[in-house]
Design brief:
Distance between the termini: 11 Å
Radius of gyration: 17 Å
Helix content: 25-40%
Number of strands: 9
Oligomer: single chain
Number of domains: 1
Low-confidence stretches: none
């Protein structure tokens, strides 16, 4: 890593259904990279908690509890997907576990599939814009709920609409809603994640990108976290150095890691 305080606060082990490697393998990679801090954040898709995630959340917590991370700042986290679809599940996932960090994410709209599965190439452009409007509204509802620390991959739908399907999106049409999201995060004291997975994928940019990071900063946003969204040891830390430089370019001087659900500010060095 090129930065003294390079930290990866969004990644997944084999405790997530789409994760490839064990917690110990991810830890070994974090040490090999020389990360300053590593936070493991396995998935909990709240609307599927009963059928698929209760045991996975328990297993992830047990494996994290056994981590001996001498020489590495290790934090225990979770990614709550679609928490408003089942608030009881979100509460149960968090209950009785002293997480350091909670990511709030939105991978799908209610009664809709994950954007991963949507055939954006064959959708009417107005339908796509309508889906994005509904997406921002649900994110605003999540911020009002407030049970997370950092908002994960704000522009997640673009990973598939633009990246995988090559359908350009005129984001100027969504500037007003995005301003509302940024202002709500600032008012609620929640962080915005710089998710670097898009840099290694077809999207070719961080989520959110530099332009949106600048706008968040203009509106008073100062809390930001960084995550590779790695699902295998090889991707851990990828894009974090680039993400730190993006933050500098957007006007930030610090970023946050979270310990015991509180931000610890670190310089972009």
């Amino acid at each position: 890593m090129n930065h003294k305080y390079a930290s990866d606060c969004h990644n997944h082990s084999h405790c997530s259904p789409d994760g490839d490697h064990s917690v110990s393998a991810m830890l070994a990679r974090a040490r090999e990279l020389g990360l300053y801090a590593w936070t493991l954040t396995d998935h909990c898709e709240c609307q599927k908690f009963e059928s698929r995630y209760r045991d996975r959340v328990r297993r992830a917590w047990e494996e994290m509890a056994g981590v001996e991370a001498a020489g590495l700042r290790f934090c225990r986290g979770i990614e709550l997907g679609q928490p408003l679809e089942d608030l009881a599940a979100a509460r149960e996932a968090l209950g009785g576990r002293d997480y350091d960090f909670v990511i709030g994410s939105l991978h799908n709209l209610r009664d809709k599939p994950d954007f991963y599965y949507m055939d954006a190439a064959n959708m009417d452009p107005e339908e796509l814009h309508g889906l994005l409007d509904a997406y921002w509204d649900e994110i605003l509802n999540m911020i009002a709920w407030g049970g997370f620390d950092s908002l994960g991959h704000l522009t997640y739908p673009l990973r598939y609409i633009q990246g995988e399907h090559g359908v350009p999106v005129d984001m100027s049409r969504h500037a007003g809603k995005l301003d509302q999201v940024f202002q709500a995060l600032v008012q609620a004291g929640k962080a915005l994640e710089v998710n670097t997975s898009g840099l290694r994928q077809k999207l070719g940019e961080a989520m959110p990108n530099l332009s949106l990071l600048k706008r968040y900063h203009e509106l008073g946003g100062r809390l930001v976290t960084l995550g590779s969204d790695a699902h295998c040891a090889e991707d851990l830390g990828r894009g974090i150095d680039e993400g730190m430089e993006l933050l500098k370019a957007a006007g930030f001087t610090e970023f946050a890691i979270y310990e015991k659900r509180r931000p610890v500010m670190l310089p972009l060095e």
